Structures are given as structure tokens and as C-alpha cells.
Amino acid sequence: MKIDPKSLGKVAVLMGGSSAEREISLMSGSGVLAALRSQGVDAHEFDPSQRDLVELKREGFARAFIALHGRHGEDGTVQGALELLGIPYTGSGVMASAIAIDKVMTKRLWQAAGLPTPKYVALPRATQTRERIVQVPDELGLPLIVKPPHEGSSIGVTKVKGCSQMQDAVALAAKHDDVVLCEEFIEGDELTCPVLGEGDSARALPVIRIVAPEGAYDYQNKYFTDVTQYLVPSGLPEAEEREIQRIVVEAYRALGCRGWGRADLMVRASDRKPYLLEMNTSPGMTSHSLVPMSAKAAGMSYEQLCLHIAASAALDG
Fold first, then answer.
1. Separation CA 9–CA 14 (nearest Å)
2. Residue 25: active-site member
3. Residue 288: helix, strand or coil by DSSP?
4. CA-CA distances (angstroms) from residue 274 to 186, 188, 308?
């Protein structure tokens, strides 16, 4: 589909923001801004932590490309403000954004829809006692993952290999969140799969297989090193890749996502069963980012991808 850049009007690229992922958002936003301008779009940088969103209306912006990550970026709050201002925006609406940023709520919905996700224990602040914490490995087995359910980019995440690590892991995650999510560890291939579109027209892009040193796909290896390998084509059997894409689109629809998103999964080595970990509704768009990489494998350049996403901007209603 050919998109006329002029038809998009004046576009604000929302970037920066006030979350723990501000640094990544600035990298994403800079890439998107340059890509849109290179295609002839009247695009401008806009940092909501420095300026009031009301200025978008005052300055005549026709739409917003959300390149914010984390809280106040992909949690439904900015989306709600843009709804009130009547400015169409990229990505999921208020409800889907609010659910997807909460990994516990996401898992509950996926379980209700019969979709596979690892077993988990949620520990609200009041239950983070020594007695309760030591019970978790008995329920989920070891190793297990401890993480804050509202953060992304592997912030505050610990892979717990022994019971003695549990207290420190919960304390670290609790610095970032009131609730701590403890999750069964799935041993196997780490995958990610982007989705474009909405409802019946939503389609999965090629699956990416992630091979990190010693399996340590952490904040540093995600953004600042080149040792992690991203395999696309994934090298998975064709039938397995198709099944993963089917599950990812179902997971996207179950949360009510639109525009674009990216699901992270594990495929268990022992039986090749896929498990959904989370849905990113405002994925990274840096040079290391995965959605552009997958889109490129499908024949779509970074610039075309940015243009496509900008053109999909909408309001909930």
C-alpha cells in the first residue's frame, strides 16, 4: 500500500518521557524522526517530560507517533491524554496498553483465552514476607525468574538458581514495582515476533530467534553490545514458525492490541511447546531493535515500517 507522506499531516514523535527506559526511548524516537523526515513527512520531536501535551493541539499536530517506552508511555496514560485531545496516535489504545504493560494482568487474560504462558506467583507488597518468599521455589521449581511486572528492557530482572537468592531478587524487583512477579523458567529457545495491523487483518512478521551469551539477554546485551545474535530467518522448522505466529496473533487479539506490537516467547527445548512471556505495545525502534529487523526480513525497510506505523495512527472510538 502506497502511503502519501503529505497525507499524514504534521506528526509529533513522542520520545524521551519520564520512565526508567527514557534513554532507549530517545534512541528509538531519533531513529523514527529521521526515517519519517527522509520520507517527506512533516515530523517533529516532542518530549512529554519537557512539554505539556496540550501544546500538541495548540501547535496543530495531526497525529502522534508514540516512541515512548515503559510507564507514562505505553501504559495507557499518554494514550488517554491523546484520546481527550482528539489526536490519533500509533499503537494500542488505552485498555490494551494498560493491560499489556502489566505482565500479571496479561498472563491472566492469556490463561483465560487458553493461551500458553509460564506458571507464576504474584507477590503484592503486603505478601513479600520471608516466609512467603521461601515457598515460591517449591511452587515454581528452580531456576525461576523474578521481575517487576510493569518494567521492560530487562530492568530489575533476576534469574534465581538457588533459594538463597530469592530475598535479594524480590528486593531488587520491589524497588521498581509494588508487585513482584515470580515466573517458572522455561529452558529453550528465546524468540520474539512482531505483529502489524488490527483485528482480523493483524498479521505476524517473521519470528526472530535470540541467542545471547550464556543466555544472558539483559539490558546491556539488548542495547549496548553486539555479542547477542538475532537469527532471522529463525532457523525453526516452517510448521513451528507458523504455529508461533498463529499464537502470537491470537495473544495480540486477546489483549485488544492494534497498530503494532511484539510478543516475546520461549520454546521449551524438551517438547518444543511455546510459552508467551509478554506483549510489548510500544517496542523499541533503535538500531538494535527487533521489529525493524523482522520487517526487513519480510521485505520492508526501516523507513517503510515507520511510515506504515505512522499511517496506522487512530483513536479508540
1. 15
2. no
3. coil
4. 9, 9, 29
* 107 burial via Cβ count (<10 Å: 0-12, 13-18, 19+): buried
What is the set of domains in the chain, with CATH numbers?
5-90 (3.40.50.20), 99-116+187-311 (3.30.470.20), 120-184 (3.30.1490.20)
131 among the known binding-site residues? no
Q: Are 232 and 209 in contact (CB under 8 A)?
A: yes
Digit-coded pLDDT (tens) for 18-43? 887 899 999 999 999 999 999 999 99
The SS3 of residue 159 is strand
For cell 483465552, name the residue: 113
Catalytic residue (choose from 19, 21, 97, 151): 21
280 is in an annotated binding site: yes
Q: Could you say which of 25, 92, 97, 153 is catalytic?
A: 153
pLDDT tens-digit series, residues 114-152: 999 999 999 999 999 999 999 999 999 999 999 999 876
List all residues 6 or more positions away from 290 whose beta carbon is below 8 Å from its beta carbon: 192, 194, 208, 230, 262, 283, 284
- Is 201 annotated in the active site? no
Residue closest to 309 by CA, chosen among 153, 209, 205: 205
AA letter at 170: V
Side-chain half-sphere exposure of 51, counting CA atoms within 13 A: 15
Answer yes or no: is 45 a known binding residue: no
- Which is the catalytic residue, given 28, 282, 289, 294? 289
- Residue 253 phi/psi, 5-degree rounding, is -70, -40
Query: What does the alpha-carbon distance between residue 8 and residue 42 come to, in Å, rounded to a whole number?
Result: 8
pTM recorded for the entire structure: 0.92
Known active-site residue 92: no
